[in-house]
Structures are given as C-alpha cells and as structure tokens.
Amino acid sequence: MMIGLTHYLILSGILFIIGLVGVMRRKNLLMLFFSTEILLNAVNIGFVAVSKYYGDLSGQMFAFFIIAVAASEVAVGLGLLVLWYKRTGSTDLDSLQMMKG
Fold first, then answer.
1. Are the C-beta atoms of 57 and 94 separated by less than 8 Å?
2. What is the pTM (predicted TM-score) of this model?
C-alpha cells in the first residue's frame, strides 16, 4: 500500500484537532505550550505533504519558517513560565487572573 497525499492530510487534520482540543481544555501553561506545538507541527505536515505532491518547495520553506517561530515561542514562553512559577508557585492558568497591571 502506497502512502499518498490523502494519508498525510488526514494525519495533519487529526493532529490539528488534538492540538485544538488541547488548547481549549488545558489549565496548565506547560500543556498549553505542548498543544500549540502540536498545532504548528500539524500545519507543517500539511505544508510539506502538499509541497511534495506538487513538486514545489514553497510549502517546505513555510514549514521552516513555522519551525523558527515555534522555537522562538517556546524560548520566550518557557522563560515567562519559569518566572511565573517562581513568583506564584503554580503554572495554572487560573492563577493568571490575579495579575494586576
């Protein structure tokens, strides 16, 4: 059995749904970051699969840009998460309600 474009797009859709459910249901900031990474990787799989199918490199270039954005998001997000954990002792999203600006 040959794996085609449809298989990759179905995998991408399933991963995107898992990530979307994770973003909507999580109360922990760390799990929210993981769910966001799953969303971005699902989009990457879709871009690379369509790019390979059409023989064009533009989808793969977009995937590299998304990987760069994901890496910077993790670096900044984890830095803020460590700072917030040191300040409050918790990584729950409910504890963010007490932030006063």
1. no
2. 0.81
* β-sheet bridge partners, residue 28: 92
Domains recognised in the chain with CATH numbers: 12-89 (1.10.287.3510)
Q: pLDDT tens, 45-58?
A: 999 999 999 999 99
Q: What is the DSSP string of 40-88?
A: HHHHHHHHHHHHHHHT-SHHHHHHHHHHHHHHHHHHHHHHHHHHHHHHH
Q: Do residues 15 and 44 touch, judged by C-beta distance below 8 A?
A: no
CA angle 86, 90, 94 (to 5 degrees): 130
Q: How many CB atoms lie within 10 A of CB 6?
A: 10
